[in-house]
Amino acid sequence: MATVAASRMLLAAVDFAVSSSAASLVHRRPLTFRAAASRLVPQPPDLIHWLRREGGFVHPKLRIADRDPYGLGVVATDEIPSGTELIALPTHVPLRFDRAPEAADGAHSTLMELAQRIPDELWAMRLGLRLLQERATVGSFWWPYISNLPETFSVPIFFPGDDIKNLQYAPLIHQVNKRCRFLLEFEKEIKSILNNVSSKDHPFGGQDVNTSSLGWAMSAVSSRAFRLHGEIIHNDKRKDIPMLLPLIDMCNHSFVPNARIVQEDNVNSQNMSIKVVADMQMKQNMPVLLNYGCLSNDFFLLDYGFVIPSNPHDRVELKYDEALLDAASLAAGVSSPSFLSPTDWQQEILSHLNLRGDEAVLKVTLGGPELIDGRLLAALRVLLSSDKEAVEKHNLNTLMTLSEEAPLGLSIELSALRTVIALCVVALQSFPSKIMQDESILKKDISSSTDLAVQFRMQKKLLIVDVMRKITHRVKMISKIGSTA
Ligand SMILES: C[S@@+](CC[C@H](N)C(=O)[O-])C[C@H]1O[C@@H](n2cnc3c(N)ncnc32)[C@H](O)[C@@H]1O
């Protein structure tokens, strides 16, 4: 009963996001979705030939090949020893925002003005503006690169409304909506600014820029740019600069890569060069694979347009909610009054965990290498304990860590873990479809956007099941220790 109530609460969050997304899509100009991995022009120039002509290095045993279903990729045509330099780009080849095109002062300052209106988190749009500028420039130095870019991207801003709903996961739907809303607003801002700009200062050569072209440019950058080290700004912190790296961005992703990017000198040096070096012996037909980062499927889908099955870095987001915890603990049969009314000392610890107070961050996660968000685990352990002194013997880090030790004793550990299992059940119930239904949808003849949306939500559910399985195993182990002690 309690689980059902809590499930309804989570469901409400999903329903809200889904209905708000559907409502806003009604007024949206359709950003057409096409699955084909076709390039911007039917027969683009030879990218490898262009790079060599520009003074870059491409190992003679490399070629670009179709790596269906990943699109194009870089492939070894023969054996290449580990440690070999595979690709090297000279300084002038990467496309970056902060290098103005020559003799385009007015246009560049207009571009800067537009870029200032982009929020930091959408940095890809900033470099996207530069990409659009070069795409619109007749005889652009980068045309051999740009013409080789995909014509369409599989990121969810291009999904039809039903497939955004099909994601069934409020945090991602929220991000997709945010990006779509931004593109719609930005189109209007750009139009009003460019209306008052003379043709010589027009950054896009007088061409129309709309949500569709902005979305294309933002997705081209989010799915292909690499952030390279800039100079140190302070305390050893570097300012990373995103850049588009021709040919290097034809390498696909793997968490078990066989090559890596090596940056020589900082991005502002005249001598900066960017290389790809083989990290293992390459065999014939082996694709060159880079690690794009230890990212969750939310990022992979939102920025790159793909989902990784059994992604070890994926997580499911939950909202830390005392009523939800109370319902879950009731369902687990380990209820405690503290969930709804924590004592003063418990409240103080919750504040230290940033789960209470005006600045509280209530987003907690399940999954990833730590399995249970440390703040959630510590909160459960503390709320299930009535012994202030026993709790205060431990520092927060110990309370936040799922280790061999049960810091507050076996009984509290078991109750905390059982509550997490109940939370998992609640989280699973909040998805409108079941894993088996998703599996059977994936066997049907469906569009690539439906396929991606269903894969995404199914992976989230499988992740929850995996967390439940691992925690149940832990509960069994702890119970065994308890019974033999
Ligand atoms: C940097 S580009 C790599 C080159 C790209 N395949 C192409 O055709 O231009 C990144 C894109 O390649 C595809 N991709 C790369 N790694 C992938 C993977 N492990 N699984 C699925 N798609 C992948 C995705 O479409 C992604 O947005």
UniProtKB/TrEMBL annotation:
GO molecular function, one term: protein-lysine N-methyltransferase activity
GO biological process: methylation
Superkingdom of the source species: Eukaryota
Domain SET: 60-293
Keyword Transferase: yes
Keywords per UniProt: Methyltransferase, S-adenosyl-L-methionine, Transferase
Transferase recorded as keyword: yes
PANTHER family with a match to the protein in the record: F21J9.27 (PTHR13271:SF116), UNCHARACTERIZED PUTATIVE METHYLTRANSFERASE (PTHR13271)
Protein name, per record: Histone-lysine N-methyltransferase setd3 isoform X1
UniProt source species: Canna indica
Organism classification: Eukaryota, Viridiplantae, Streptophyta, Embryophyta, Tracheophyta
